[in-house]
Design brief:
476 residues, alpha/beta, Alpha-Beta Plaits, six-stranded mixed β-sheet, globular, binds zinc ion
């Protein structure tokens, strides 16, 4: 049962906003099938034109006022502010959505592209990831313009076309902004949609929202072993499977450094006053100085827990193996395996390739970095400046702990997944992946790319209020 609104406050702000209208516009957007790929050539780009037409019709003041540019199939809007001494702000989103897993179409209570709106929910693929935020950013901008608010700060809105695939749209826009010599005061992108129980960080009974300020890197490494196969009665020199297994075992045994990187120290600094579970409580008592002094012990503690260990080390997950024999008495021929790495900031894809090559030295194994998906870790954004402070101020107004009436903790954090935000890190030192459009825990558990993706109307409206307020607090 939906209940995420127990964390909401000030739902009466901007009461002249039309809930009916906003939900209908979101529903219509969700009915447009802007599905990615699987490749650029197989993407139906006409759906993106259809979505743009819907945006233009829905937000006439915004599109009337903004300079609108197309970068490939991505969209860039600039609403110029009156004070050129203020660095512009950037709201980003992606217009693409992931496909529905084949064979599960009928499992949806309402068709994935129906854009169905009922009394409680707006349904459809993209309702959480992230057509809601795309539309919400525009709803807020339109609201500001409808009320004749004068923008002192320039606002840019950049909407990527392929975040779920190649991120080429955001990459091109980021480069373009860099070429223009622009710098941004802050950027807001999608976060992880949920309110987290901070029990996992040793602060049970409390809740918070993550503001993701950096991303782990990503690398797939393929190992190949060549063999002519043959009858298994003479495996002289070992089979390709034996060699590949040895290689995988060596690579898996490598201990990557365990380290409490800066972002985790900031996270703990934020939570320290509420951390009561030992041994963490003792290690963080005294705030940042204690956290720095006990960093190694804290990192080891994180590393011993399933939900925290990915945040203190580079992870290595052998995931695919191909080419095994179909018969017990026949040796396999060529075999390959793929190993997926998630890189802690400080480790590069080149480091991973070097480490793997070292590990398999002496074995007849070919090593290859699959470049299409390879990404070094992102830069780490700051949390000590204007943008972060303002985001916390505004979020604190709208998201509170119902037990204590205190604002939810806004937790600086690192994420594993790649988002478009990292494509702007050269033009902005405050890239905040934060979603004010929150889902209930059961929605999150089903996965945002799962069946029956939907958002509650109240959560959608609350997200819009967050953006209106952010405009009010930082643009005017
Ligand atoms: Zn997304």
């Amino acid at each position: 049962m939906a209940q995420v609104w127990k964390f909401f406050s000030h739902e009466d702000d901007y009461s002249d906003m039309s809930e009916e209208g906003a939900c209908a516009r979101l529903g219509r957007a969700l009915s447009i099938k802007t599905v990615d790929g699987p490749t650029r050539d197989t993407t139906d780009w006409s759906t993106f034109d259809e979505l743009e037409a819907h945006l233009r019709a829905s937000f006439p003041l915004t599109f009337g006022r903004a300079a609108v540019e197309h970068v490939d199939h991505s969209l860039m809007l600039t609403i110029s502010g009156e004070d050129p001494s203020l660095l512009p702000a950037l709201f980003i989103a992606h217009m693409d959505v992931v496909p529905v897993v084949e064979g599960t179409e009928d499992d949806w209570e309402h068709d994935a592209f129906s854009g169905h709106v009922d009394d409680t929910y707006v349904w459809g693929r993209g309702a959480l990831d992230m057509t809601d935020q795309l539309m919400g950013e525009l709803e807020a901008t339109e609201y500001a313009l409808a009320h004749d608010w004068r923008f002192r700060r320039t606002l840019m809105l950049c909407f990527g076309q392929d975040e779920e695939m190649a991120q080429s749209g955001a990459r091109a826009m980021g480069r373009l902004l860099e070429e223009r010599g622009l710098r941004f005061e802050y950027l807001v992108d999608e976060g992880d949609y949920n309110i987290v129980d901070t029990g996992i960080y040793g602060a049970p009974g409390r809740f918070g929202m993550r503001v993701n300020l950096c991303e782990k890197g990503y690398a797939d490494v393929r190992l190949t072993v060549r063999s002519a196969g043959g009858h298994s009665s003479n495996p002289f020199g070992g089979t390709s499977l034996a060699t590949l297994s040895e290689a995988i075992a060596r690579i898996s045994r490598r201990e990557w450094p365990v380290e409490l990187i800066d972002i985790n120290r900031r996270m703990l600094e934020c939570l320290a006053p509420t951390i009561t579970a030992e041994p963490l409580a003792s290690l963080v008592r005294g705030g940042r100085a204690a956290i720095d002094a006990n960093a190694d012990a804290i990192a080891r503690e994180f590393a011993s827990r399933r939900e925290l260990y990915p945040f203190v080390t580079t992870t290595c997950a052998p995931t695919m193996i191909e080419g095994g024999s179909q018969q017990a008495n026949v040796m396999p021929q060529d075999m390959s395996a793929t190993i997926n790495f998630r890189l802690l900031p400080g480790v590069t894809t080149a480091d991973v390739l070097r480490a793997v090559s070292e590990d398999v030295a002496g074995l007849p194994v070919e090593v290859e970095l699959l470049n299409d998906a390879a990404n070094d870790p992102s830069a780490t954004s700051r949390s000590d400046g204007y943008g972060f402070r303002k985001l916390v101020d505004v979020a604190s107004r709208y998201f509170v702990d119902p037990q204590t009436d205190e604002p939810l903790a806004l937790i600086p954090a690192i994420v594993s997944g790649a988002t478009d935000a990292s494509m702007y890190e050269r033009v902005c030192d405050t890239c905040m992946r934060f979603s004010a459009f929150v889902a209930d825990a059961d929605e999150v558990a089903r996965g945002v790319h799962g069946t029956d993706e939907r958002i509650t109307r109240r959560a959608y409206l609350q997200g819009i209020r967050f953006f209106i307020r952010l405009i009010q607090e930082t643009m005017l």
